[in-house]
């Protein structure tokens, strides 16, 4: 039985532990993401992953905790 491209992509994503996540963001924020990714020569998803990692680290060190 032949599989469609969508089925092959879904199987590949599942195997790699990848899942699609979409957000509605202000256009100005989207432009910032695009510019930062381009300036640093990295994919936009990598930029977002790095930002989340940095935020998580800052929470552990108490940098952004309320006093």
Strand and helix map with partners:
Blueprint: H1 5-16, H2 27-39, H3 44-61
Helix pairs in contact: 2-3
List how many beta strands DSSP finds: 0
How far apart the termini lie comes to: 61 Å
Q: Encode the helix/strand succession as letters.
A: HHH
The major pleated sheet works out as:
none
Poorly predicted parts: none
Q: Structural class from helices and strands?
A: mainly alpha
Strand content: under 5%
Helix content: 55-70%
Question: What radius of gyration results from the CA coordinates?
Answer: 17 Å
SS element count, helices = 3
Question: What structural keywords apply?
Answer:
67 residues; mainly alpha; 0% strand; extended
Description:
Helix content is 64%, strand content 0%. With 67 residues, it is an all-alpha fold. The chain has a domain at 28-67. Helix 2 (27-39) packs across helix 3. The N and C termini lie far apart (61 Å). This is Protein CopB.
